[in-house]
Amino acid sequence: MEVTHIHWSGKPIIGGIERYLDSLIPELNKLNCNSSLICGNRGTKPCQVYFEGLGTKNKFNIDPFYRENKEIIDETDIVHMHNGHVISPTKTKAIFNFLKKRNKKVILSIHNIDNCEESKDIINLPFDSYIVYSSFMQNNVKNIFGITPGILSLYIKIDSPKEDTYNKKDTIKILQPTRYSKWKGSPLSLECIVNLLNEEEDIKFIHGGCHTLLYGTLDIPIEALPWIEAKRIEFRDYSFEEIGKEIGNADIILHPTVGIGEYGEPFSLTCLESMLLGKPIIASNSGFVPKLLEGYSRKQIVKRNSKEELYHAIRKWVLGPIPELTANDKKVIEKWKNYLASSPSHHIALYQRLVGEH
């Protein structure tokens, strides 16, 4: 069986979708589901195929797209498209129409939704299957579009939790590993950290995803500049290989997404990975996050878009103590690890149903 994934970015861009596909596709290939990714970034893996027109800022034409990827498209049984309704609805529609004329099975993964009419038009196209990755997103798509999508598990490889090396005498390392954006609550985090540094708390804040952004640039408040110069606040671009290690080395993880209602956090691979590594997490009550972290004790859930609650939550753990990992936490972690491990086989089962294989 041949499956082609299409996404607008790939490695080295670091986001939830990119990390999921980078982990999943090699596993599918190991299970004899021949899989590749066509995307708008040059990558290092043989299963990642670059096409310039898929880049978010590049012009797209279906003829060169087909010409450059003819062998892949002609041989593929299924095309699995990821979040094109949000990133590039016009390109998504052109590709969808082209593929359906060739009787290809086409799946749309809805990683998140927005209120753009073009985006809604794409979701209303007759895809052969719709996929989401959480019950939160399934309910949203059902309520808004009258479609009940299937749920698949995202997939990333996770190491076992490490014993904390945190020592109260050490500088506390606080990490926000998400891309730097208003939607991810980055300005809130930065303001809280600056306040704590001004109060002479012994902390260091690191924020990831600052340069390999799909949109926009960093907007750093002037109050943070002295602390950046003093290297108490840093912005780093981690590689795919580094991000898990950096989460594991952090003392506190921040994830204060500000999205509200149906536009809240659709899943949060960052929170999942942090939990699976046994890390203390401060996250907002946005979207699926509270459900994701249900039963895990090393967390503080703060009100969405509340600088005051976020500040007090960070300060609480800076002053200590940070809760220890409990036996029940380890059970929650094991449950999620098993769920992740089943992801490649569940993807293959979906593909087999669509092409009539058993």
List keywords for this structure.
358 residues, alpha/beta, 7-stranded parallel β-sheet, 15 helices, 13 strands, 16% strand
Please describe what this structure looks like:
By secondary structure, this protein is α/β, with parallel strands linked by helices. 40% of the residues lie in helices and 16% in strands. The protein is built from 15 helices and 13 strands. The strands form two sheets. It has a seven-stranded parallel β-sheet with strand order 3-2-1-4-5-6-7, sandwiched between helices. Strands 10-9-8-11-12-13 form a six-stranded parallel β-sheet, with helices on both faces. Helix 6 links the parallel strand 5 (105-109) and strand 6 (129-132). The model has no long low-confidence stretch (mean pLDDT 91).
